[in-house]
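This section describes the prediction task in plain terms. A model, or a person checking by hand, is given the sequence of a single protein chain and must write out its three-dimensional structure as a string of tokens. No templates, partner chains or ligands are provided. The sample shown here is typical of the held-out split.
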Amino acid sequence: MLAAAEDRSGGILKPNRQGERTLASPGWALAALAASSPALAQTAAAPAQQFDRVVVTGSHIAQTDVESALPVQIITREEIDNSGVTTVEQLLDRVPANVNGINAAQTIGSQDQPGLAAANLRGLGAGSTLVLLNGRRLANYAFNGEAVDLNTIPLAAIARVEVLKDGASAIYGTDAIAGVINFILRKDYRGVDAAASFDATQHGGGNAGQASLTLGAGDPDRDGYNVFGVLSYQKQQALAGAHRDSTKTQYRPDLGIEALTLLTFPSNIVDRPGRRVLNPTYASGCAPPSSLPTVVRFPFVSTACGFDPAAVADVLPEVERTSALVRGTWRLNASADVFAEALWARNTFDTEIAPYPQPAVSTAFGSPIYPAGGPYYPTDFAAANGLSGDLLFSWRATELGPRQNSTATDAQRYVLGVEGQAAGWDYNAAAAYSANQQEVEYGGSYLYQSRLIPALRSGLVNPWGPSGPEGKALLEASVYRGTPQTADGSTTQFTAFASKEIAALPAGPLALALGGEARWERLSYDWDPAVLSGD
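The expected answer:
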């Protein structure tokens, strides 16, 4: 059995200037209790082993990590450096408890979380996983509204990461049901560190590079201050699905995979009375690689062309991230420090997805119908298949190219606080404000319905091949270019906590923690009226 051997000063715990708890004297040790064996008595004289006491995520009472009753995984700075990762997202991908976390590639084509990287502890959802920076909240990603964007945290500024793999709603609230991830910043860094890396793919596309500069000066014990800063930059090239054999197609009949859509170009004719789907270009092979021959088996067997989205979409986005973080500590007196933190980040996320699809349905602006007598009417094909009059068709804006999405995120965070010791209490109080804003821009083949449907019904746009100058002009006039959605969110909070050992018990000291938090959260999400109207 092991017991704590008290030193001559009584083993009083005191906070160091970084807010961690250390022992007042080096005499604290773990010693073996010997009753009858000389060998055990010799063991009691083993060299003393010291443990720093810290406030571990999930508790406001200082303790050593070896005695924690909570399932907390601690990732040290050394482990981060040895891992070879370059982003916080990549680091958390290596944490087994982070199940199906959200990454940038997964958000291609998403409206509510473009560019978001989020943690998902125990697979319970990003909205149930609380992410903290130095024990305090960050504003949730405004488009998503329920999860923190990991892209705003510079990896070079992190001293350690604490992952609490258990529910912590009693301390932090219901958004910590799945657990808590707390990123602890460096607090006493001194010196200069510059780092850079570049990853090049064997077959091109998806190359990535990053660089960081870390600066720090001042020893709080000697100089009365410490100032620390990090500047980080990352760039990743896009990777198109067509550039890799494994992602260039969703049509693999040899594997039983035929994930094609009938919204294609050249267009499919929908014969509703005959319950058929037909295409004049089927016999000539459609228009590979994006449009391929396929067989429609429901409700009746017919031949058509199918669109392969993988052939024209990105599997990795183009990403650019810039962030800067500054932290300063100033010593007021022997038992109190004032600290301040500032974080700025700007991230851009650019992707391309399949060209705009127009189904053969009735809309507020009419149906896509090609008029009888139009210059591109497939007269011979229609006669051979028993078709006549106006033709209902589905269509894709292949002539206008892919849809382009560009998302820009600006984030900032400011903290001002004081920590120390007073009347035997260890205390920490701070005010924090964090916010982020997102803006999406559309380009490429996003189209106004109110202009597209009349253009398709005019007969000047060729649904089965290249259009003439007039048809192309009508399509160009239908293109939407602008900002369909913007969002901003912010979190303002004031926190104050204090702890103290109030009694000595046989199993160890009894400690008490008291504290409170006031928090205001704001979210604004705005859409272009043209999007809300269905146009």
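For orientation: The helical segments are 38-43, 77-83, 88-93, 169-172, 379-384, 449-457, 469-477, 529-532.
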